[in-house]
């Protein structure tokens, strides 16, 4: 068993040690039959949401996770993603997508609730590699499962420090607790469309892509300087795949007081939006008041002319908010004009594929040497 007291504070060191020195234990087999319940035992009724004063959840057709809980659904998802469609073989290229069900595995909600075992997923990957193909994508699913394990060991090592404002590094940061800024962030009305789209998806569906989570966390902690714990608690409240270790571990990482070996990592909202939602399809899906802005121009409506805004039926500050903050590093990406038509003319593969220049960089959030990703 891995000794969590000797756990490296950098994931790469942990991963290399595990990959070279550890074996994954086999999953337990389901028994053919279970013993009968004791005589006279009353099974009772399964309570409904209404019994707890809750209403049935409202589904949204835009959701990237239109699924139900339970082991059967989890196994069906694995069957679909691995064996029926071979999507797992292209996971590394599509995992940074934003729209739809199939850009990533979507195993996290079932893992968080214990509906499927990570050991079983590992076994299925190894079987797939033997019978179909083994490539960077199949490895990357294991890579992500190891991250999940790593954050559990981090929680064991640091205990309640996982929730302290100074984080694992005892690093004093003058965090703000501005309720107006925080409300704008959590309600998706920051005036920064890429942030707003992701936050609205979370509020409506309980799900957000990995790419979105990295960006909205960076925006809250680095661009707004808001106490990271407020963001972590909002995710805890809403996420359908909430897991205490992964959630708080990732928020500490994003805030720069966790397991990140580099300092001052900050995401550029405009660059990230143009890289991963080049044509603005994701923004228009979740921020419909901007739907008349064509192409990538939708990432920075404040940079458009008054006539362009009027043509799109937008009045900044009324129909859509003015940005609550504008980072200086955004401007060089807004002002890029590689083709006629402004920065909207960027070309790309669309919202569901990882840009070519990023495919071999590992997970940008954890490995990029560029502080302005």
From TrEMBL:
Top-rank taxon, per record: Eukaryota
Binding locations of FAD: 91, 241-243
Cofactor(s) needed by this chain: FAD; (6R)-5,10-methylene-5,6,7,8-tetrahydrofolate
Bound cofactor: record note: Binds 1 FAD per subunit. Binds 1 5,10-methenyltetrahydrofolate (MTHF) per subunit.
Limits of the Cryptochrome/DNA photolyase FAD-binding domain: 143-333
Sequence segments annotated as region (Disordered): 336-361
Cytoplasm recorded as keyword: no
Alphabetical UniProt keywords: Chromophore, FAD, Flavoprotein
SUPFAM superfamilies in alphabetical order: Cryptochrome/photolyase FAD-binding domain
GO MF terms, alphabetically ordered: damaged DNA binding; deoxyribodipyrimidine photo-lyase activity; FAD binding
Site positions (Electron transfer via tryptophanyl radical): 175, 228, 251
GO biological process terms, semicolon-separated: photoreactive repair
Family from the record: Belongs to the DNA photolyase class-1 family.
Role noted for this protein: May have a photoreceptor function.
Protein name listed in UniProt: Cryptochrome DASH
Source organism (scientific name): Pelobates cultripes (Western spadefoot toad)
Lineage: Eukaryota, Metazoa, Chordata, Craniata, Vertebrata
């Amino acid at each position: 068993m891995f000794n969590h007291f000797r756990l490296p504070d950098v994931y790469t060191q942990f991963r290399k040690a595990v990959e070279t020195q550890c074996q994954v234990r086999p999953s337990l087999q389901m028994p053919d039959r279970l013993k009968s319940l004791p005589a006279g035992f009353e099974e009772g009724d399964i309570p409904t949401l209404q019994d707890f004063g809750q209403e049935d959840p409202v589904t949204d057709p835009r959701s990237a996770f239109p699924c139900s809980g339970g082991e059967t659904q989890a196994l069906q998802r694995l069957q679909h993603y691995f064996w029926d469609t071979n999507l797992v073989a292209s996971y590394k290229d599509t995992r940074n997508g934003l729209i739809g069900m199939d850009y990533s595995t979507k195993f996290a909600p079932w893992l968080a609730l214990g509906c499927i075992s990570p050991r079983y997923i590992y076994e299925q990957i190894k079987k797939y590699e033997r019978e179909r193909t083994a490539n960077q994508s199949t490895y990357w699913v294991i890579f992500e499962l190891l991250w999940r394990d790593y954050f559990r060991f981090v929680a064991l090592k640091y205990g309640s420090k996982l929730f302290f404002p100074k984080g694992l590094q005892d690093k004093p940061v003058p965090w703000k607790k501005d309720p107006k800024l925080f409300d704008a962030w959590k309600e998706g009305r920051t005036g920064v469309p890429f942030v707003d789209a992701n936050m609205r998806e979370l509020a409506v569906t309980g799900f957000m892509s990995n790419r979105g989570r990295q960006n909205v966390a960076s925006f809250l902690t680095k661009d707004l300087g808001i106490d990271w714990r407020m963001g972590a608690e909002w995710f805890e409240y809403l996420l359908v795949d909430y897991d205490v270790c992964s959630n708080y571990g990732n928020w500490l990482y994003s805030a720069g007081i966790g397991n990140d070996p580099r300092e001052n990592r900050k995401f550029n909202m405009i660059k990230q939006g143009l890289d991963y939602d080049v044509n603005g399809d994701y923004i228009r899906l979740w921020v419909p008041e901007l739907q008349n802005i064509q192409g990538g121009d939708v990432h920075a409506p404040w940079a458009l002319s008054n006539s362009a805004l009027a043509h799109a039926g937008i009045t900044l500050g009324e129909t859509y908010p003015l940005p609550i903050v504008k980072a200086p590093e955004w401007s060089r990406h807004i002002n890029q004009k590689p083709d006629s038509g402004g920065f909207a003319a960027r070309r790309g593969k669309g919202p569901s594929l990882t840009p070519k220049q990023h495919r071999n960089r590992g997970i940008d959030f954890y490995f990029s040497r560029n502080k302005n990703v």
